[in-house]
Write a structure and sequence with these properties.
CATH topology of the domain at 11-83 and 157-265 in chain A: Rossmann fold
CATH superfamily of the domain at 11-83 and 157-265 in chain A: P-loop containing nucleotide triphosphate hydrolases
Largest interface: A-B, 29 and 23 residues
Radius of gyration of chain A: 18 Å
Order of helices and strands of chain A: EEEHEHEHHHEHEHEEH
CATH topology of the largest domain in chain B: MetI-like fold
Oligomer: heterodimer
Low-confidence stretches of chain B: 1-18
CATH class of the domain at 11-83 and 157-265 in chain A: Alpha Beta
Number of helices of chain A: 8
Bound molecules: adenosine-5'-triphosphate, magnesium ion
Structural class of chain B: mainly alpha
Order of helices and strands of chain B: HHHHHHHHHHHHHHHHHHHH
Number of strands of chain A: 9
Number of domains of chain B: 2
Radius of gyration of chain B: 23 Å
Largest sheet of chain A: 6 strands, mixed
């Protein structure tokens, strides 16, 4: 059977590991299966290797062992079709292009037609209306991040990789974005990976939260989030939500204790 | 990282001149003109100094002659400017496509840049005959290196995440070049072009010194021979004015085209990723550079079938220096000339560096003065000082003082501007930390600002080496009658081509070595004080 090219891809990581040139182990061999159309959150302490893992899935970093398959094919294949987008941890906007110019650049790099109206719509969606012609230097840190999210969404990817997309955004805007943005990728059935430091955000946005240990990253918990969609800010007050947040916290704490024990054993 | 997509190399950007500082600069200029006028009248009878009124009078009276000469010079300067910068772009492209070649490309480019114009001028005159050829080639030689260096930095100045972005849409090196590298390099290209504009005028004028038919360089020589004070001052003023205008014009264009201002300091290009930087690699690089230079030199002469009577190859120079019966005599003559030059060059170079850095430091303690001085210094930095050599000779005489002063002035302005700039680069947050400990201005200067200034200071010191050599050889040639500059001029006029080519090879090698030595000190200093720039 030929897979539908428009259908969201599944991602399979097998024994995926990264050791940096200096001998620093960032990611221990990891097996992961991300189901098509699901949103998965990666949480873990700072510096544990989440970004590295995400970049290996995107095909931007060469794994030192194991491999990634997107829809059964290596990431290079997906890259060639411009089938994925990454919102990088630092917004990586080109300083000489306006917000609109940056989004349009992504479209033309991905060889997609540039539709002014839909670009405007995206800019409004991330709350940057009135700033379409502003250059990155004229934006705040959070505004730049939102511009980067708009750029990642613009090419309508089947696989969306978001590295702390709301890191520099204030709490209220963050909630608003957490409300509005998932609707886009859910409606398109995009397979999404979201790296975040906010446990509530991870629970709110995803179908599944994967908790990593301190570096080198290792999966220490894989928690299914079985809350109904669409979700709203009120859902955060449900006891079920609170219980899930508690689970994630417990796993994170366990991870930290694991490292302390390892240190003590030395 | 600082908020905003600042790249490491871009941190040394020129601030846009505020109208206030522009006004202060104009005021400073006014004071200078008035002082000059007064001095001119005071020294009226001494044949030293023509006041501005006399200069303007002369220019008005002889505007037809001056206009024709200026047009001829500017045409050649423009042709050289275009050719030299195209060559720089081609070389930068080569180093980008073939990173392993970067060390050799920059090394060979440096050696060629260090060829003393004073000697290449007459040689080119013999090879190319009368006409515009030598002027254009010298103008091109004077500009290409100062464009190549910032361009190499600029083409690698983009942070890696911008390239990841391009790759994440499945695009390759070509798309990265078009969408990221070329645009990121543009401010650096403009920085090079801005320095190149006055340098091209200087190159064209030195070419005209070697016996052209038209041009303000020809008139300069005529005025000096005739001890025509007014004419000398008028030509120097004209050349200076045109050079400053070319410099400011390109700056204006840059501000139109760019969102961020061009960098002010010509930082050294980093080795491309994955290249070793050890001593062995440096030695290998030096040997490869030597091999390529010898190959280009010998091969070029053979290829163009130049008459071996006046075109000497590497083997001829070696023979002249070591094997011929009079080799000892040749070596002694060269050594003597080099010592005569070095004795004036080194004090002048050091004096220029010390004065530039010292004044910059003084200015930070007296910020009001700095506001007036900065725009003036930036404008004067662009003055091709060599074209004012006749003035300095007029005023300070043909002795040691005049030469040392000229070299010092040549080094002084770029150093001052770079250091002022470096002193301003102290990151704001760090200053805040110091303020929070109530550290005094002197504390702050010693602990914070001077270390922050060092990268700029050394970049200026490195670029000043060839400039100082150029200044000293030109003034020796035009005026003082001693040293290696005069030896080259004399050998050219008596057709002692063995001596001429040996001197050229020696001067080029020594200035390239001096440049490399300052560069090595710079690399150590950057490693300590600005690790992000020494990657
Ligand atoms: N290009 C690189 N070369 C060498 N080491 C690297 C490189 N990039 C990251 N590292 C190291 O790999 C480890 C994991 O980094 P990574 O960026 O994946 O962490 P992270 O989990 O995303 O952290 P954070 O939450 O702070 O973003 C860190 O210890 C880091 O120092
Ligand atoms: Mg990260």
């Amino acid at each position: 059977m030929v897979p539908d090219p428009a259908a969201p891809p599944g991602v399979v990581c097998t024994g995926l590991a990264k050791t940096w040139a200096g001998g620093l182990v960032a990611v221990r061999p990891t097996d992961l299966v991300l189901k098509p159309g699901q949103t998965t959150a990666f949480v873990g302490p700072s510096g544990c290797g989440k970004s590295t893992l995400l970049r290996m899935i995107a095909g931007l970093e060469q794994p030192s062992a194991g491999h990634v398959l997107i829809d059964g094919k290596p990431p290079a294949e997906t890259l060639r079709k411009a089938g994925l987008s990454v919102a990088f941890q630092d917004p990586s906007l080109l300083p000489w292009r306006s917000v609109r110019g940056n989004i349009e650049l992504a479209l033309s790099l991905a060889r997609r037609p540039v539709n002014r109206a839909s670009v405007d719509q995206l800019i409004a969606l991330v709350g940057l209306q009135g700033f379409a012609e502003a250059r990155p230097a004229e934006l705040s840190g959070g505004m730049r991040q939102r511009a980067a999210i708009a750029r990642a969404l613009a090419t309508e990817p089947q696989l969306l990789l978001l590295d702390e997309p709301f890191g520099a955004v204030d709490e209220l805007t963050r909630q608003q974005l957490a409300q509005d943005l998932p609707r886009i990728w859910e409606a398109r059935g995009t397979t999404t990976v979201l790296v975040t430091h906010s446990v509530t955000e991870a629970v709110m946005l995803s179908d599944r939260v994967i908790v990593f240990s301190p570096r080198p990253a290792e999966v220490i918990a894989d928690i299914a989030i079985d809350l109904a969609r669409p979700r709203s800010a009120q859902d955060a007050r449900q006891p079920r939500f609170a219980a899930l947040v508690e689970d994630v916290f417990a796993a994170l704490t366990r991870g930290a204790a694991l490292r302390d024990a390892a240190l003590a054993a030395q | 990282m600082t908020p905003g997509p600042m790249t490491p190399g871009m941190t040394a950007a020129q601030p846009r001149p505020a109208t206030g500082s522009r006004r202060a600069g104009l005021a400073g200029l006014g004071v200078i003109v008035l002082g000059w006028e007064a001095l001119g009248h005071l020294l009226g009878g001494t044949f030293l100094l023509a006041p501005p009124s006399a200069v303007v009078g002369y220019l008005v009276e002889n505007h037809a002659l001056m206009g024709r000469a200026l047009a001829a010079t500017l045409t050649n300067a423009l042709a050289g400017f275009v050719l030299g910068n195209l060559a720089a772009i081609a070389l930068a492209a080569l180093a980008l496509i073939w990173p392993a070649a970067q060390r050799v490309v920059t090394g060979v480019a440096l050696v060629i840049f260090c060829l003393p114009l004073v000697a290449t001028g007459p040689i080119l005159r013999v090879l190319m005959g009368p006409g515009d050829g030598p002027q254009i080639v010298l103008a091109a030689l004077a500009v290409y290196y100062t464009t190549l260096i910032p361009l190499l930095v600029g083409l690698r100045a983009a942070p890696s995440s911008w390239f990841d972005l391009v790759r994440s849409y499945g695009r390759g090196r070509l798309a990265a070049l078009v969408h990221v590298r070329m645009r990121a390099a543009l401010p650096y290209l403009f920085a090079g072009l801005q320095i190149a504009a006055p340098a091209a005028i200087l190159g064209a004028m030195v070419g005209e010194f070697t016996g052209a038919e038209r041009g303000i360089g020809v008139l300069t020589v005529r005025a000096m021979r005739g001890l025509d004070v007014e004419m000398t001052w008028a030509i120097a003023t004209l050349a200076t004015g045109v050079a400053v205008m070319a410099y400011l014009g390109i700056g204006l264009l840059a501000r139109r085209v760019l969102t961020d201002a061009p960098p002010m300091i010509l930082a050294p290009p980093a080795e491309p990723r994955g290249r070793s930087a050890g001593l062995a690699a440096a030695l290998l690089g030096a040997v490869s550079v030597l091999a390529v230079v010898v190959l280009l030199w010998g091969g070029g002469l053979a290829l163009f079938g130049v008459n071996p009577f006046f075109a000497k190859g590497p083997e001829d120079v070696l023979a002249a220096l070591f094997w011929q019966p009079d080799a000892a005599q040749t070596r002694a003559t060269l050594g003597e000339a080099l010592v005569e030059t070095g004795v004036l060059l080194i004090p002048g170079y050091l004096a220029g560096l010390i004065a530039g850095a010292g004044l910059a430091i003084a200015f930070t303690l007296l910020p009001r003065l700095a506001i007036t001085a900065m725009p003036l210094a930036i404008a004067l930095r662009s003055v091709p000082i060599v074209t004012t050599a006749p003035l300095i000779v007029l005023m300070l005489g043909r002795g040691a003082v005049g030469t040392v002063a000229l070299v010092a002035v040549m080094v002084f302005f770029p150093t001052l501007v770079a250091c002022l700039h470096g002193l301003r680069q102290t990151p704001g947050q760090v200053t805040d930390v110091f303020d929070s400990y109530a550290a005094g201005p002197l504390q702050r200067l010693v602990r914070l600002q001077i270390p922050a200034m060092l990268p700029a200071f050394f970049a200026a010191a490195r670029m000043a080496v060839p400039a100082a050599v150029l200044a000293v050889t030109v003034v020796e040639w035009l005026a003082t009658g001693i040293g290696i500059g005069t030896l080259m001029a004399l050998s050219a006029s008596v057709s002692d081509h063995d001596m001429l080519w040996s001197a050229v090879a020696l001067v080029a090698a020594l200035s390239a070595l001096g440049y490399a030595a300052v560069g090595a000190v710079e690399a150590r200093v950057l490693h300590i004080y600005a690790p992000e720039q020494s990657r």
